[in-house]
Specification:
Blueprint: H1 2-31, E1 37-43, E2 49-55, H2 73-76, H3 79-87, H4 94-99, E3 104-106, E4 111-112, H5 116-124, E5 133-135, H6 137-140, H7 148-161, H8 164-179
Parallel strand pairs: 3-5
Antiparallel strand pairs: 1-2, 1-4
């Protein structure tokens, strides 16, 4: 049921957001040199890696690492990138990852390979039995403002209780939080 929901939701939302995605793509090309999309290696279901697609928000050549560890972050984010991150529009291309079966609409956010401590803890608590998501419990309960341990707590809670009704609740709360720009630090 979850996979069917993911496919229907992603196709519907991709169709609705296609004109916006075209405008964002043009804005990225006008704003800075480099590709429109940024693909980063992430850890997904069963610990398998995949390339997660996002709109590029940083200057070309910026090293892939946790955002909070990037020195002079504001200088590395492009002009349009600030807006895309603040509005979470940089996440829209992940709907393709959902269609490809690499992600779900709702689930724990996929870790980058350098987040070894988080990956180790997620393996211990079997979080990788489920697909990572575009949004999740951690995102609606603090997103960038909570610790790694608190995120892990929400990942474990989601793993124990996930279902279609919880997913719908998380999606609605995500939309609300994105509209009011809550807990987005960059």
């Amino acid at each position: 049921m979850k996979r069917l929901f993911d496919i229907i939701f992603s196709i519907l939302f991709l169709t609705i957001s296609l004109p916006l995605m075209i405008i964002v793509s043009i804005a990225i090309k006008v704003d800075s040199k480099g590709p429109i999309f940024f693909k980063s290696l992430r850890v997904g279901q069963h610990g398998k890696t995949f390339k997660m697609i996002k709109f590029r928000t940083m200057a070309e050549g910026t090293k892939l690492q946790e955002t909070k560890k990037i020195k002079n972050l504001n200088k590395k984010i492009t002009k349009i990138g600030h807006y895309l991150r603040r509005s979470s529009l940089d996440e829209l291309p992940q709907l393709f990852n959902v269609l490809f079966g690499q992600m779900s609409i709702v689930g724990p956010r996929p870790a980058i390979k350098s987040q070894k401590n988080l990956i180790k803890k997620r393996l211990k608590f079997k979080i990788y039995q489920i697909k990572p998501g575009i949004t999740g419990l951690a995102q609606i309960n603090g997103r960038d403002s909570i610790s790694e341990n608190k995120k892990l707590y929400y990942d474990c809670l989601y793993y124990k209780e996930y279902g279609i009704f919880l997913d719908i609740k998380i999606i609605f709360k995500t939309v609300f939080l994105v509209i009011i720009y809550k807990d987005i630090s960059h």
